[in-house]
Amino acid sequence: MRKKIKIGKPFIKENTDSLIFDESIQLCANVTMENPNNHKIESKVCYYEFDKKYKKYLCDNRSDAFVMGLLTTAMENDMDIEFESPISEKLYYQLSTYYIPLVSKNNSSYPMYDIKIAGPTDNKIIKNEKAVATGCSGGVDSFYTIAKHTSNDIPKSYKLTHIVCSSSGTSDFTQERVIKNFKNTFDEIQKIADDCNLNAIVCYNNLYEFYKVPFKGFQTFANTTYGSIAFALQKLISIYYLSSGPSLTYFNMDINVNGVGDASSFDLLTAQCITSENISFYSTGMELDRIEKQEYISDFEPAKKNLKVCGAYEYIKDLHFINCSRCKKCIRTMSHLYVLGKLDNFKDVFDVEYFYKNKNKLLGKFLGIDHGYYIKKTSDMGKKYNHKIPLLAYFYCYCLYKPLKFFKKLLKDSKIIKKIYYKSGIDIKINGYRDPAHEFNKKNK
Ligand SMILES: [Zn+2]
Predict the structure, then answer these.
(1) Which of 81, 147, 218, 259 fits a disulfide with 211 by CB distance 3.0 to 4.6 angstroms?
(2) Phi, psi (rounded to 5 degrees) for 97
């Protein structure tokens, strides 16, 4: 018999023991399924938690949020989904006819199965407040969406009103740590909302408890889980922008060949498939490359004060800026800003002095280790703005960082080389901090 995820009728519950909010409200549903980590059948409540003021906007007469939130775990673990309350008819049609079979068919090297979703459907329009929202991480893609959709180029009914900060996409599985990191994040997102005159919606959810650790599917095919939050607030939101990573030039449904390693290369299709009678999704930023988005936001005041791209800040002690300015993501962003001639605009969030002192090495590292997608167009932009990449940077790229990248690839397969690499602290010598991947593996052994 086929494995199944059974979703009960959604219900609303006040949570008096919230670890996040003073007064909170949850949209819940009982979910019964095989836990993909221990393979035991479990029944537990899946929930989306918000500040209590959002109570009137929660949609408890549709299963949309829960089907969307659990879709990737169902596809990753080959389980059908059954739900008691209806889902929006258009959503049902598009997920079952296009999204599920297409994602499954085009990702043969990663198991995303062609599952069935079954239950009642409803095509009635749900009255809502016509809010326009987007998820916000504080990174380049988010800031592009915010800058663009608060500008005068955008018609009134498409202008942003809310930004969403959620715990979806976490790489952790211990509630205490997830909450601790989430609280830090939402203080930062609240500040961005204040600086942009937007409302911040904070959503904590426990979707990660239904996913296979180490969350490959949860993080790779993340837009259905992010979009599920809009469906939880279906009486508030009518437009939701998914900030896409790569430009549409890189459209590809296979995560193993698309050059970015996740589903963001087919956001256009995902946005189309999860658009319902009540909420329209758009893939914003697909019209530009990353460096062009940085060009767009480089004079946007809230970005200059709050841009955060760092992937290693949790691992570095005595951090003086919100971005460590040492990790791959920081170096990528600073290199782009350098060739655009806009790095000084971001001196409050990056260690610009450190970059200038080590300019050739850091530009060489960017060219040597980053994905082709991010490197492409960089030298063209340098020529356009008369900030060409120095020859010495190419020397570091080919004589140091490319060979090191090759060596790191070997590390993956050799326990002995890995031991020598970490024991002698080569990662610290190269990066200036302990490799987060090593820390994570050690912590969770
Ligand atoms: Zn960093």
Answers:
(1) 218
(2) -90, -35
| Tokens 């199944």, located at residue | 4
Question: Is 190 within the bounds of a domain?
Answer: yes
Q: How far is the CA of 346 from the centre of ligand 1 (A)?
A: 14
Q: Is the peptide bond before 302 cis (omega within 30 degrees of 0)?
A: no
Structure tokens belonging to residue 172:
């952790």
- Considering the domain architecture, whether residues 178 and 321 belong to the same structural domain is answered as no
How many Å lie between the centroid of ligand 1 and the Cα of residue 443? 20
Distance in Å, CA 363 to ligand 1 centroid: 15
**Residue 354, exposed/middle/buried by CB under 10 A (0-12, 13-18, 19+)?**
middle
Q: How far is the CA of 424 from the centre of ligand 1 (A)?
A: 22
Claim to verify: residue 278 and residue 315 sit in the same structural domain = no
204 and 350 both lie in a single domain: no
How many distinct structural domains can be found in the chain? Answer: 2
**Alpha helices, H only, 298-398:** 301-306, 328-339, 352-357, 359-369, 372-375, 378-384, 391-396
**Same structural domain, 38 and 123:** yes
What's the whole-model pTM score? 0.89
Cα(314) to ligand 1 centroid in Å equals 9
- Assess if residue 123 is contained within a domain: yes
162 phi and psi angles, rounded to 5 deg: -135, 145
Judge contact between 146 and 302, C-beta under 8 A.
Answer: yes
pLDDT in tens, the chain (445 residues): 899 999 999 999 998 888 888 899 999 999 999 999 999 999 999 999 999 999 999 999 999 999 999 999 999 999 999 999 999 999 999 999 999 999 999 987 788 999 999 999 999 999 999 999 999 989 999 999 999 999 999 999 999 999 999 887 676 777 777 888 888 888 889 999 999 999 999 999 999 999 988 888 888 888 999 999 999 999 999 999 999 878 888 888 888 877 777 888 899 999 999 999 999 999 999 999 999 999 999 999 999 999 999 877 666 666 778 899 998 999 999 999 999 999 999 999 999 999 999 999 999 999 998 877 788 889 889 999 999 899 999 999 999 988 888 877 777 667 777 777 777 777 777 666 676 566 555 654 4
Q: How far is the CA of 332 from the centre of ligand 1 (A)?
A: 10
How far apart CA 158 and CA 154 sit, in angstroms, is 6
CA of 140 from ligand 1 middle (Å) equals: 14
How many whole angstroms from 72 Cα to the centroid of ligand 1?
29
CA 328 to ligand 1 centroid distance, Å: 7
Q: Residue 319 Cα, ligand 1 centroid: separation in angstroms? A: 10
How close is the Cα of 427 to the center of ligand 1, in Å?
15
Residue 309 CA, ligand 1 centroid: distance in Å: 7
